[in-house]
Amino acid sequence: MAKDTESIEREIEAARNQLANTLDELSVRANPKRIAESAKATIAAKLQEPKVKYSLIGGGVLVAVLVVVKIVR
Hints:
By secondary structure, the chain is mostly helical. It has helices at about 1-30, 30-45, 50-70. The longest helix is centred in the first third of the chain and has 28 residues, at about 1-30.
């Protein structure tokens, strides 16, 4: 009977440790600063893609031309 009790206590301790590790990992993942930094890095990487980069440049040039045309008229 003592062996069963010790075994159960070890299992409970292992489960507690696993739960503590899981909670620590969740607190790191849910950190608002970390989420903001991750989003910022993702957006920066997306903006560096040639298709996106040149599309934005083209759109900016088009808007600038339209503004100049509107001012000249």
